[in-house]
């Protein structure tokens, strides 16, 4: 029952002024246990805002982040799941599933969260799950046209993770849900 | 599961013999069938179990029923949302996601429950530390927590208040004490506790295989020790009842074992529930926890009760009363705690049990009708006794109270009631005051010189979850949607009486096939607008021909289109709520919802007229984009639309301008109609629901008079049209008046209206 928010690529203030109002009204403190942020916030104020939502905040460095102390990649263990975090601009070709799978194997995680393409994606392949929460502000991107603001909320419950995708389409918040189950690995 | 420190079963019961000493006070209770089984006795007194003279079987049946209802309740309410989600039918994700602000969503309830649990746990950890070995074990805490949570969920208007746990604790204790007694009896009389299945007593020695394994001497030995089953009737009747209470094969089987460890939680819950509700009687403990003023007095019940106490005190001991009043000691300072926990904090647990024996022994039925009595909260024998007891406690401290000269030390004295109290004296005095108490409670005189410093403007906001205050976002959400709801309710209730929905069904059937192809997201949106449309449709339904159907339908949907757009942002959640309820019914319902929306949406497309394809630009809300997508398939249905459309618009327009014409002409100025319609809308918007309703009624009647040639259906249509216009306007008002989404919705509304105007002007 752990709620983990995956969000990123806000590009505030350069490409977007703020989160959409509807998203902001949904993100209230007290409900979310962890926030993982793919990067490109870009300024400290946004970091503080996210911190106010939840004290447990994990960020990796995106190419436009003004704080250079964020790490390039990060691995977090929540419940039974190992979650890997990376911005994604380091993985070339950008958004390519095979390369991301390589990164996932490298980090040895079950769920890999990356961003940079500003487009929501959730893939499942044999090793695990790759999630791209998209851009929470809908900031423009050089590789994606017509960006819809989106973010992802993961509900981790034992060996099962339910991924809720919140997208803002035409002014309306749309929610979709994807279920992933982890096969219990035999521990020796 | 016996606690480490043994509970002393009933050591502190005033011995039966002494009850005769009070004989003049309580003759009817000199024989109490279950004197040493407090749990059972209290359950009888509280009304859960039938009265003492019933048979054992009755007891068992009633017990079993109570337990069943609790078990069902527990199963229903305590399953956490995310786990039980696989079996459930489709739930609208927009409403039901974890971040949803909608407090009625499953996640909202989950978080609310989590809040409640946190509060309850805080209190439970501090419960009765002196009996910690019993109350602080995790199992007991779990039991208490579950009972409290369930009760609070069942009664959301009370929520959880500190003190409820202290009311519950002695009940649980008493039930456990009964079990202790049972195990004592079992030890002493174990021969009688035979496993009496089917009337046969099965002993180990009866099994035949034993003889194979054992030598004959052993067999003989065992048989020698085999006890003879004595007849139950030989025993003391009390022991008899204890034994038959625990018989696993009596009526209702194991569920009916009156003294059962397995069901201690169920029994405690029913006792707690009855104690809080008062069971139709006057004294309901829950009242003392409520902040809301009772309708009769305008005061919260606690204040009412406290003033009752002071009233009684004034009649009994005027000097003490004046002394306290002069010092400014308001009764609720100490009475709050006394009453809310029923003196639980003033006496040690053992003493408390005795006191509660007395309290519960008295009847709780209301003595007089509610209107005649000033203090409803004590309007029963039990209530009178409670107030009398409180006063006698005050009198007990009389000397020390009169001695002090400031309020603080008075309160200190009152709040820390001395440990070694002669309970019997206290109770005797209370009984003697009871008559006075009942008189005082019934009097209607104003209290002399007694002011209430805590004014009744404590009346809290009408939040349905009084216990845990809704967080800010939920309140905002509720406020926003409450306005929308109110207006809708008002509008609908004023609308015309029910018409048959036949025509809408026809439309639905025709459009059934169309809407299947919508994507999930679209379907979400489509569903969003369903309930609103349903309401409007209900208003408008009537026995019309299909042509009229399509006419009114198109108008209906035209307006609905506007409504939808206007309401998108505002009533999204509202509709989702309704929609959720709809979806919960069954799939056909779902389909019909989709169909209805689809129908509205696509007839709006037809209104938008001969503009196929992508239709109205990208800035238009999705409903119209859906409509354009669906346009092609339904073109045939709505062919007669354009003419009648203008017909109706123009006719209405004329009426609006106070011109009663005979026959609206089909080609009556389109250019007139569109700006006219626009004006009409805005004029209606300004006048507000009252004015518009009157006008529409007047318009209706005038139209009806004038419009003979078209026949009745068209007049009916116009009625419907007005009704729709009515609701649409109200919705516009909602939009205008709702703070947050003002600009968005107004802009959208304007866009829509402009679009309609353009289309009409094209014809």
UniProtKB/TrEMBL annotation, chain A:
| Protein family per UniProt | Belongs to the VPS29 family.
Name the CDD domains for this protein.
MPP_Vps29
Taxonomy of origin reads: Eukaryota, Viridiplantae, Streptophyta, Embryophyta, Tracheophyta
What are the UniProt keywords, alphabetically? Protein transport, Transport
* Gene Ontology BP terms: intracellular protein transport; retrograde transport, endosome to Golgi
Q: Which PANTHER family match?
A: VACUOLAR SORTING PROTEIN VPS29
Record protein name field: Vacuolar protein sorting-associated protein 29
Q: Name one Pfam family in it.
A: Metallophos_2
Name the species this protein comes from: Helianthus annuus
Q: InterPro entries this protein is in?
A: Calcineurin-like_PHP_lpxH (IPR024654), Metallo-depent_PP-like (IPR029052), Phosphodiesterase_MJ0936/Vps29 (IPR000979), Vps29 (IPR028661)
Which residues are in the Calcineurin-like phosphoesterase domain?
A: 4-157
UniProtKB/TrEMBL annotation, chain B:
UniProt key word Iron: no
Query: What UniProt keywords apply to this chain's record, in alphabetical order?
Result: Coiled coil, GTPase activation
Pfam family for this entry, one: RabGAP-TBC
Keyword Electron transport tagged: no
Identification of the protein by name: Rab-GTPase-TBC domain-containing protein
Coiled coil start-end: 729-763
List, in alphabetical order, the Gene Ontology terms for molecular function in this entry.
GTPase activator activity
Renumbered to this chain, the Low complexity biased-composition regions fall at 549-610
* PANTHER family per record: TBC1 DOMAIN FAMILY MEMBER 5 (PTHR22957:SF337), TBC1 DOMAIN FAMILY MEMBER GTPASE-ACTIVATING PROTEIN (PTHR22957)
- For the Rab-GAP TBC domain, which residue ranges apply? 32-363
Q: A single GO BP annotation from the record?
A: retrograde transport, endosome to Golgi
- Chain residue ranges for the region called Disordered: 1-23, 448-467, 536-628, 690-712
Q: Which InterPro entries match?
A: Rab-GAP-TBC_dom (IPR000195), Rab-GAP_TBC_sf (IPR035969)
Q: Which GO terms describe its cellular component?
A: cytosol; endosome membrane; Golgi apparatus; retromer complex
Q: Which SUPFAM superfamilies match?
A: Ypt/Rab-GAP domain of gyp1p
């Amino acid at each position: 029952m752990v709620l983990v928010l995956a969000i990123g690529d806000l590009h505030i203030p350069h490409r977007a002024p703020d989160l959409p109002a509807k998203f902001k009204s949904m993100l209230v403190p007290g409900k979310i246990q962890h926030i993982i942020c793919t990067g490109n916030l870009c300024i400290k104020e946004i970091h503080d805002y996210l911190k106010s939502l939840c004290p447990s905040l994990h960020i990796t460095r995106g190419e436009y982040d003004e704080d250079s102390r964020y790490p390039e990649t990060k691995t977090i263990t929540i419940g039974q799941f190992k979650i890997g975090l990376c911005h994604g601009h380091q993985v070339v070709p950008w958004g390519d599933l095979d390369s991301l799978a390589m990164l996932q194997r490298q980090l040895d995680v079950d769920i890999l969260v990356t961003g940079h393409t500003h487009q929501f994606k959730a893939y499942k392949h044999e090793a695990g799950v790759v999630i791209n929460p998209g851009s929470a502000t809908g900031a423009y991107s050089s590789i994606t046209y017509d960006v819809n603001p989106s973010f992802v909320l993961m509900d981790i419950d034992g060996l099962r993770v339910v991924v809720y995708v919140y997208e803002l389409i035409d002014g309306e918040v749309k929610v979709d849900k994807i279920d992933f189950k982890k096969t219990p690995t035999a521990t020796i | 599961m016996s606690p480490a420190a043994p509970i002393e079963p009933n050591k502190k019961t005033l011995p039966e013999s002494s009850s005769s000493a009070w004989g003049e006070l309580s003759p009817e209770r000199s024989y109490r069938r279950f004197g040493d089984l407090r749990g059972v006795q209290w359950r009888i007194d509280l009304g859960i179990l039938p009265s003492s003279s019933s048979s054992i079987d009755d007891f068992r049946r009633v017990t079993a029923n109570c337990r069943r209802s609790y078990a069902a309740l527990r199963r229903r309410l305590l399953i956490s949302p995310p786990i039980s989600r696989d079996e459930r039918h489709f739930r609208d994700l927009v409403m039901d996601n974890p971040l949803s602000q909608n407090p009625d969503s499953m996640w909202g309830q989950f978080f609310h429950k989590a809040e409640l649990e946190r509060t309850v746990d805080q209190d439970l950890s501090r419960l009765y530390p002196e009996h910690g070995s019993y109350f602080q074990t995790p199992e007991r805490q779990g039991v208490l927590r579950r009972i409290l949570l369930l009760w609070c969920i069942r009664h959301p208007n009370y929520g959880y208040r500190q003190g409820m746990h202290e009311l519950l604790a002695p009940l649980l204790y008493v039930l456990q004490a009964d079990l202790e007694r049972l195990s004592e009896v079992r030890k002493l009389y174990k021969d009688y506790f035979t496993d009496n299945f089917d009337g046969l007593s099965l002993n180990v020695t009866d099994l035949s295989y034993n003889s194979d394994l054992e030598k004959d001497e052993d067999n003989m030995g065992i048989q020698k020790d085999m006890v003879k089953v004595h007849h139950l009737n030989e025993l003391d009747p009390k022991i008899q009842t204890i034994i038959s209470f625990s018989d696993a094969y009596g009526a209702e089987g194991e569920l009916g074992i009156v003294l059962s460890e397995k069901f201690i939680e169920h029994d405690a819950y029913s006792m707690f529930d009855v104690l809080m509700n008062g069971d139709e009687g006057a004294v309901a403990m829950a009242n003392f926890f409520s902040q809301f003023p009772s309708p009769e007095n305008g005061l919260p019940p606690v204040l009412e009760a406290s003033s009752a106490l002071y009233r009684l005190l004034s009649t009994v001991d005027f000097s003490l009363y004046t002394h306290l009043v002069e010092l400014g000691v308001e009764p609720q300072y100490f009475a709050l705690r006394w009453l809310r926990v029923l003196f639980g904090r003033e006496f040690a647990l053992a003493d408390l049990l005795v006191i509660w024996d007395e309290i519960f022994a008295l009847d709780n039925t209301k003595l007089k009708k509610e209107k005649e009595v000033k203090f409803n909260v004590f309007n029963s024998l039990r209530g009178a006794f409670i107030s009398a007891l409180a006063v006698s406690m005050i009198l007990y401290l009389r000397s020390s109270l009169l001695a002090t000269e400031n309020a603080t030390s008075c309160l200190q004295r009152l709040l820390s009631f001395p440990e070694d109290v002669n309970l019997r004296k206290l109770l005797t005095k209370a009984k003697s005051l009871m008559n006075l108490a009942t008189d005082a409670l019934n009097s209607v005189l104003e209290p002399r010189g007694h002011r209430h410093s805590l004014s009744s403007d404590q009346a809290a906001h009408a939040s349905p979850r009084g216990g845990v205050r809704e967080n800010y976002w939920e309140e905002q959400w509720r406020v926003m949607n409450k306005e929308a709801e109110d207006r809708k309710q008002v509008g609908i209730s004023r609308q015309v009486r029910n018409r048959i929905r036949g025509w809408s069904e026809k439309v639905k059937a025709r459009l059934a096939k169309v809407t299947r192809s919508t994507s999930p997201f679209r379907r979400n949106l489509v569903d969003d607008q369903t309930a609103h449309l349903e309401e409007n449709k209900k208003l408008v339904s009537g026995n019309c021909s299909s042509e009229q159907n399509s006419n009114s339908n198109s108008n209906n949907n035209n307006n609905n289109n506007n409504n939808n757009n206007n309401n998108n942002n505002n009533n999204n959640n509202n509709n989702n709520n309704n929609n959720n309820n709809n979806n919960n019914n069954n799939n056909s319902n779902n389909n019909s919802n989709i169909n209805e929306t689809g129908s509205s949406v696509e007839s709006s497309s037809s209104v938008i007229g001969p503009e196929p394809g992508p239709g109205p630009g990208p800035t238009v809300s999705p409903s119209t984009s859906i409509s354009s997508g669906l346009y092609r398939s339904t073109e045939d249905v709505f062919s007669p639309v354009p003419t009648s459309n203008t017909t109706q618009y123009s006719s209405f327009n004329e009426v609006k301008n106070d011109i009663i014409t005979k026959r609206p002409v089909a080609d009556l100025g389109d250019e007139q109609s569109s700006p006219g319609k626009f004006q009409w809308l805005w004029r209606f918007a300004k006048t507000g629901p009252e004015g518009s309703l009157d006008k529409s009624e007047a318009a209706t009647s005038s139209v009806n008079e004038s419009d003979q040639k078209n026949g009745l259906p068209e007049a009916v249509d116009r009625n419907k049209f007005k009704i729709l216009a009515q609701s649409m306007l109200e919705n516009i008002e909602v939009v205008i008046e709702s703070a947050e989404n003002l600009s968005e919705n107004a802009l959208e509304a304007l866009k829509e209206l402009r679009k309609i105007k353009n289309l009409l002007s094209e014809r």
